[in-house]
Design a protein that fits this description.
The chain is an alpha/beta fold and 540 residues long. It has helices at 3-8, 21-27, 40-52, 57-70, 72-81, 83-90, 94-100, 102-105, 123-131, 158-172, 191-194, 210-226, 239-249, 258-278, 294-309, 314-318, 360-367, 384-391, 413-419, 453-462, 470-481, 500-517, 527-533; strands at 113-116, 138-142, 179-185, 231-234, 255-257, 287-290, 321-325, 328-329, 371-374, 398-401, 425-428, 435-437, 440-442, 445-446. Bound molecules: nicotinamide-adenine-dinucleotide, (2S)-2-hydroxybutanedioic acid and manganese (II) ion.
Length: 540
């Protein structure tokens, strides 16, 4: 291929009209671009004007992806300038639409690595080819089985890996040339995809069990071999596999599961922020988690560990938790429990009406939660009756309906404020604009793991941490909670997305310091220098 085309088609190298005349001469680009040389700021302004002419969210995303595909510096410059506006388009909730339509609207692989369970001998080549000589430090991998709350989307799920990585760079500044999105295609049980002639993944049912774990093992081994300093971020795996994978690798390699641990930290941070506002203690709270899957149990575990750190015994701490799933309140004799759910079961003898506790309303009446978190994928499950019942027994109910995307949220923030007369302390999965209620402007915290995983990952990478452990995660949660101004009327329980880059640095430094303090870091740099050294800036 002639040199001009090679450069102009490489998004890591291409500056488009940003190439100076000298560069054009040097690189063999003379005449291959319109004559005018633009600055990055001018290119961004032109792109933003085009963006503003597009109305539909998915079309806006496709436009931004076109820039991502052609000029990654321009993409991140633009993203950095419009972070609040672009987050819901590049990431959740619009990313859900792009995943559902991935095969139909596919144009480019976006540098992802596509691993197939049917070709396990090609795993190493796959990673090597997708990396194309890049020094990979961060992989976001998904098998697409539990995409947000929308279920099994097979290979289409790769978009969540691409999207999560975009947020990493925008928030914590990791060099986009050092990241790799990976799809593990074990098949899909999504009938719609299996019947879709355009579906781009393996057209067979999902493989579980030994062969599945053999694929994961081979992927992990190949990734560690090719990229010895890599962090493996697992995203949107199904409930049956996610914890098994985490438990298998978390003490051996640098890895974490975002849905279990990232979500746990952001919810702990949100609860700490809420308690700063209500001036209450975490040890006085009663936690109800509705939807006890990856996120739900991960959240309960993070809160439970916090109660232990506050000095409660395991027995005392457990008394603060109630898990509710499809079966209702989870008891010791409830059928079909997952191993993770078994950490937080209740005894039927605690209740006079245990057999009636098969739905959320009955459980809320019986246990009077002060913190209620929704990770159930059941839209509208936090009804007016339930929320009013909760609010009748606690001054400032902490309510986080965080199922994604928008259509799956357990409640809308505006309704929660109305039903509790402005008392609810709210966290939502997707961004929500400020809400006026009785003369107060309520800022709504976004309890989405995106506010915290970039800092955690980059902090761990910055000091070459050997593992990511509970202590680092807890300290990350506290670092975020501390950024809230609790005395402002209508204050949010979490810091605003417009300060994402600032608090991602705080989280990164906290995690890096924690790794050093625990003797788990491998660096000679100071924390500040190490985190700064990870930072890539979009500039020519
Ligand atoms: N805001 C965030 O940062 C964040 C992070 C992770 C997950 N989530 C959201 O949480 C939701 C769950 O994700 P996950 O990864 O835990 O999925 P999961 O499949 O592991 O868990 C979902 C749980 O909900 C339960 N459930 C299903 N129907 C129910 C019902 N009628 N009543 C009660 N429980 C029911 C399932 O049995 C399962 O245990 C998704 O919508 C996801 O988008 C949000
Ligand atoms: O992707 C998100 O928006 C958050 C979370 O990881 C989820 O699965 O919903
Ligand atoms: Mn997720």
């Amino acid at each position: 291929m002639p040199q001009a085309a090679t450069i102009l088609n490489n998004p890591y190298l291409n500056k488009g009209t940003g190439f100076t005349y000298e560069e054009r001469k040097e690189l063999g680009l003379v005449g291959a671009l319109p004559p005018r040389v633009q600055t990055l700021a001018e290119q961004a302004e032109q792109a933003y004007q085009q963006f503003q002419r597009i109305e539909d969210g998915l079309d806006q995303r496709l436009f931004l992806m076109k820039i991502f595909d052609t000029n990654r510096t321009l993409f991140y410059y633009l993203f950095g300038q419009h972070i609040v506006e672009f987050m819901p388009i590049v990431y959740d909730p619009v990313i859900a639409e792009s995943i559902e339509q991935y095969s139909e609207i596919y144009t480019r692989p976006q540098d992802a690595a596509f691993i197939s369970i049917d070709r396990m001998d090609e795993i190493e080549d796959t990673l090597r080819n997708a990396a194309s000589g890049r020094d990979i430090r961060l992989i976001v991998v998904t098998d697409g089985e539990g995409i947000l709350g929308i279920g099994d989307w097979g290979v289409n799920g790769v978009d969540i890996s691409v999207g999560k990585l975009m947020v990493y760079t925008a928030a914590a500044g990791i060099d986009p040339a050092q990241v790799l999105a990976v799809s593990l295609d074990a098949g899909t049980n999504n009938e719609q995809l299996l019947a879709d002639p355009l579906y781009l993944g393996n057209r067979h049912e999902r493989v579980y069990g030994d062969r599945y774990y053999e694929m994961v093992d081979k992927f992990v081994a190949a990734a560690e071999k090719l990229f010895p300093q890599v962090l493996l971020h697992f995203e949107d795996f199904g409930r049956a596999n996610a914890s098994n994978i985490l438990n298998k690798y978390q003490d051996k390699i640098l890895t974490f599961n975002d849905d279990i641990q990232g979500t746990g930290i952001i919810c702990l941070a949100g609860v700490l922020g809420a308690l700063n506002i209500s001036k209450q203690k975490i040890t006085d709270q009663t936690f109800l988690t509705f939807g006890a899957g990856n996120a739900g149990v991960g959240i309960a575990k993070m809160m439970y560990d916090e109660l232990l750190r506050e000095g409660l015994t395991p027995e005392e701490a457990k008394q603060h938790f109630y898990l509710v799933d499809k079966q209702g309140l989870l008891f010791e004799d409830t059928p079909d429990l997952t191993p993770e759910q078994k950490q937080f079961l209740r005894k039927r003898s605690e209740f006079a009406n245990a057999d009636e506790l098969t739905n959320l309303e009955a459980v809320v009446k019986a246990v009077h939660p002060t913190v209620m978190i929704g990770t159930s994928k059941q839209p509208g499950a936090f009804t007016e009756v339930i929320v009013k019942e909760m609010a009748a027994h606690t001054e400032r109910p902490i309510i986080f309906p965080i199922s994604n995307p928008t259509k799956l949220a357990e409640a809308k923030a505006a309704d929660l404020l109305k039903w509790t007369d402005g008392k609810a302390l709210i966290g939502t999965g997707i961004p929500v604009a400020p809400i006026e209620y009785k003369g107060v402007t309520y800022e709504i915290g976004q309890a989405n793991n995106a506010l915290v995983y970039p800092g955690v990952g980059v902090g761990a990478l910055a000091v070459n941490a050997k593992v990511i452990n509970e202590k680092m995660l807890a300290q990350a949660a506290h670092a975020l909670g501390g950024i809230v101004d609790p005395d402002q009327p209508g204050a949010a329980v979490l810091p605003p997305v417009e300060r994402l880059t600032e608090f991602s640095t705080t989280v990164a430094e906290t995690v890096a310091q924690s790794a050093i303090d625990q003797g788990l870091a491998q660096t000679d740099l100071t924390v500040h220098d190490a985190v700064q050294a990870m930072k890539w800036e979009p500039k020519y």
